[in-house]
Amino acid sequence: MSAHPSTPASPASPGTASAARIRLHHLQSAKDQGAKFAMLTAYDTMMASIFDSAGIEVLLVGDSAANTVMGYSSTLPITLDDMVVFAKSVVSGAKRALVVCDLPFGSYEVSPEQAVASAVKLMKEGGVQAVKLEGGEYFVPHVRALVAAGVPVMAHIGFTPQSEHALGGYRVQGRGDAADAMVADAQALEAAGAFAVLMEMVPTETAARVDASLHVPTVGIGAGGATTGQVLVWQDMLGLGAGKGARFVKKYADLRSVVAGAAAAYHDEVLGGVFPGPEHEFGQ
């Protein structure tokens, strides 16, 4: 694995208007070549367009929208119809990035047939190019059915937010003897046809073992630097939230202070009669 981050082989440079869309084989090439790719969540057209222009290779329409956009305390309440709306918005703003959408809680667990029906809805109505599914070896039949139906699948293991109650809250997964089971889960999901495996809140050593055991690329969030890709929730990455962030989050900007300052200045100017000024008005 190369120590120097680079982007997967693609038809044109990141951020150029003529660049062709990132495809699964570009991500696989990154893994094969020891390169890296970046992934961010997105839920709306404007942010998707900004991230796309910045060269982000993969945009995730995450069920984290339940928390960051809809204000729920967990990802569980968000529906498949909600995800279709967010997916449409992101796809309309992404000209180059691969767009992956989460299958939300309750939309795939019942059967492989339910998983296929939900994924087809996200692809036909939302326009996404792939889906992400939480869970280990138990969901191998679901992944196989999805892949057989022509749906690219990113698997998600480690801490799986949809299972937070079963896991006892937000806890690191894959420590000690559990590392062997995580490697087995990842290998089974790869064998079922998953094009990538995402690991969340996993010890660095365990994530490195999983990555080394797979041919397909891995994506990490709180899983160290051995993975091919990295993903963050964009509001965390840009410092939009209040309070202390998770250990694995790096804030690349303090957007909360910027937005709050701008809103306060607007408020003061409106109340003070400064805005709108003559330059903002229309004459006869």
Describe this structure in words.
The chain has 284 residues and is an alpha/beta fold. It contains 11 helices and 8 strands. The chain has an 8-stranded parallel beta barrel with strand order 1-2-3-4-5-6-7-8, surrounded by 7 helices. Helix 2 packs across helix 4 (80-93). The longest helix is centred in the C-terminal third of the chain and has 17 residues, at 255-271. The model is unreliable at 1-18 (pLDDT under 50). Its EC number is 2.1.2.11. Its cofactor is Mg(2+). Homodecamer; pentamer of dimers.
Rg value: 20 Å
Structural class: alpha/beta
Residue stretches low in confidence (pLDDT < 50, at least 5 long) are 1-18
H/E order of the elements? HEHEHHEHEHEHHEHEEHH
- Compute the number of helices: 11
Could you describe the largest sheet, including whether it forms a barrel? 8 strands, parallel, barrel
Mean pLDDT: 93
Percent of sequence in beta strands: 5-15%
The main sheet orders its strands as: 1-2-3-4-5-6-7-8
Helix content: 25-40%
Total DSSP E strands: 8
Q: What is the distance, rounded to the nearest whole angstrom, between the alpha carbons of the first and last residues?
A: 67 Å
Net shape: globular
Short description:
By secondary structure, this protein is an alpha/beta fold. Helices cover 39% and strands 13% of the residues. An 8-stranded parallel β-barrel has the order 1-2-3-4-5-6-7-8, surrounded by 7 helices.
Describe the SSE topology.
Elements: H1 24-33, E1 37-41, H2 45-53, E2 58-61, H3 65-68, H4 80-93, E3 98-102, H5 112-126, E4 130-134, H6 140-148, E5 153-158, H7 164-167, H8 178-192, E6 196-200, H9 204-213, E7 218-221, E8 229-232, H10 234-237, H11 255-271
Parallel strand pairs: 1-2, 1-8, 2-3, 3-4, 4-5, 5-6, 6-7, 7-8
Helix pairs in contact: 2-4, 4-5, 5-6, 8-9
